Amino acid sequence: MKKDVITDLAWGGGILVLALIASFARHQGYIDHDTTTRIVLGATGLMVASFGNRMPKRMVPNARARQATRVGGWSLAISGLIYAGLWAFAPLNVALIGGCGAIILGMAITFGYCLSLRDRARSA
Fold first, then answer.
1. Per residue in 3-16, pLDDT tens?
2. Coil/strand/helix, residue 124
3. 13 half-sphere exposure, CB direction, 13 A CA radius
4. Which of 5, 67, 88, 92 is 20 to 30 Å from 57 at the Cα level?
5. Are 48 and 98 in contact (CB under 8 A)?
């Protein structure tokens, strides 16, 4: 548990440092505003993918909860990679709509799967 908190804080601090460096580089004229936005939001997508990758590895109490963390981990990892990839390569308006749509779809898949597990547990 302590390792998870340290990893989460490292991700948060890393993104803050990256944002400050990108902002400084923009003010110095090395990169433009769009590049700064792409760097920070791409890193955010990689953070979501990392969280999704770590989800199934956590210890959970029962089999249904393990199923939910596996599906949630996969959906968040994939949606985070799609989000990061869109911010890296797609036009800004496509990255915004597509990236947010990917994250929302990943969350909806996880939520829907959890509801289906709950319904199966009730009917059994």
1. 878 988 999 999 99
2. coil
3. 6
4. 88
5. no
Give the pLDDT score at 27: 96
Termini Cα distance of the chain: 33
Q: Which residues are CB-neighbours of 75 under 8 A, at least 6 positions away? A: 52, 105, 106, 107, 109, 110
Helix, strand, coil % over all residues of the chain, rounded to 5: 90, 0, 10
Q: What is the 3-state secondary structure (H, E, C) of 43-54?
A: HHHHHHHHHHHH
Locus of tokens 């990679």: 81
Helix extents (H) in 62-91: 63-89
The pair of three-digit structure tokens given for residue 89, joined into one six-digit string: 């390569």
97 vs 41, 90, 104, CA distance in Å?
13, 11, 10
